[in-house]
Amino acid sequence: MPRPGRPKKLLVLTDDERETLERWARRPKSPQSLALRSKIVLACAEGPTNREVAARLGVAEATVGKWRSRFVVKRLDGLVDEPRPGSPRTVTNEDVEAVVVKTLQEKPDDATHWSTRSMAKTTGMSQSAISRIWRAFGLKPHLVDTFKLSSDPLFIDKVRDVVGLYMCPPDHAVVLCVDEKTQVQALDRTQPIFPLLPGVPERRSHDYKRNGTIDLYAALNLATGEITHQLTAQHRAVEFKKFLSLIDKSVPKELDVHIVIDNHSTHKTPAIKKWLLAHPRFHIHFTPTSSSWLNLVERWFAEITEKSIRRGTHRSVKELADSITHWVGTWNEHPRPYVWHKTADEILESLSRYLTRIVDSGH
């Protein structure tokens, strides 16, 4: 006579439970462990023994008994893994606060700023814990940002003038952002450049040979993004006057010309003022002093520097001039205008908050 086994616990499914288990069993994104447990419970609900279910699903009989029993006691919640407690927390809230306060209010005795190693040594915590705390609070003691506040007495008026021109340009007029990039160097490396290879970056010698300089004048069309440029050997009012004449020829006569430009002395000489009086369709809008960020052509200068000039190699000024002219021509084939988003009020409000921080800092 066969020896009777341990009696099975009665397993009966409700309609909702059966629908959920079937969904878990067939859903592609379900964890494999949850899908298997669902199949075990569904099979057990049909009435076979644990051994028969184990043979059908290819698992151990003890596994079937475990999940049958757990489902009978906890139902669907019993099939889901409970979160594991993990190791006890070693860094308390007080420790975190102490690190943040020390980072913000103190400096090490032997350095200008904290490092993870120096902070860990001072607080007795691990370097990785310090790193995690700094990341959580966005603290980067190794980084320094720079700023310069304009001392222009007409700063507010000039900001409103230039930003208003960007955001609401006048009808029947073209808006040009004009500036010059002076002393662009024609640099050549002292040794051949090794090309890019899989796993190896382009390599070049750290030293270079200077082959002269050139000045780049540029006018960015606010609406189209097109560039009018001029290359000169010197940076004087004479060259700036020639560039204004070039702009005058390139812009249709029926349009007014609004020029955004900085306060360089070459832009305000008697010869330039006389030229402007003879060309009344030209209207000059000066940016505040120390506020080159208001001139959108500076963004274009950053682009040509990053994509052409900085890594270019030129054995002569002529090569550099040809390279710049080619790059400008390529740009003008598919020009991309820069769009100004911040209003003058938003800029002034942001500056006000910044000035409040400076005053409250105690310096």
Structure description:
The chain is an alpha/beta fold. It folds into three domains: 15-79, Arc Repressor Mutant, subunit A (Orthogonal Bundle); 94-137; 155-353, 2-Layer Sandwich (Nucleotidyltransferase, domain 5), CATH 3.30.420.10. It contains 13 helices and five strands. It has helices spanning 15-26, 32-44, 50-57, 61-74, 93-105, 116-123, 127-137, 155-167, 237-250, 270-278, 297-309, 317-333, 344-360, and strands at residues 173-189, 208-221, 227-232, 256-261, 282-286. Strand 4, helix 10 and strand 5 form a beta-alpha-beta unit. Helix 2 crosses helix 4 (61-74) and helix 3 (50-57) crosses helix 4 (61-74).
Question: Which SSEs are present, and which pair or pack?
Answer:
Blueprint lengths: L14 H12 L5 H13 L5 H8 L3 H14 L18 H13 L10 H8 L3 H11 L17 H13 L5 E17 L18 E14 L5 E6 L4 H14 L5 E6 L8 H9 L3 E5 L10 H13 L7 H17 L10 H17 L3
Parallel strand pairs: 1-4, 4-5
Antiparallel strand pairs: 1-2, 2-3
Helix pairs in contact: 1-2, 2-3, 2-4, 3-4, 6-7, 8-13
CATH topology annotation of the largest domain: Nucleotidyltransferase, domain 5
The dominant shape is elongated
Please report the number of helical segments: 13
Beta-strand percent range: 5-15%
CATH class of the largest domain: Alpha Beta
Which regions contain 5 or more consecutive residues with pLDDT less than 50? Answer: none
What is the level-2 CATH architecture name of the largest domain? 2-Layer Sandwich
Question: Order of strands across the widest beta sheet?
Answer: 3-2-1-4-5
The figure for the number of domains is 3
Largest sheet: 5 strands, mixed
Mean pLDDT: 87
How far apart are the termini? 96 Å
Q: What's the helix-strand series?
A: HHHHHHHHEEEHEHEHHH
How does the helix and strand content classify structurally?
alpha/beta
CATH superfamily annotation of the largest domain: Ribonuclease H-like superfamily/Ribonuclease H
Please estimate the helix content: 40-55%
Number of strands: 5
Radius of gyration: 36 Å
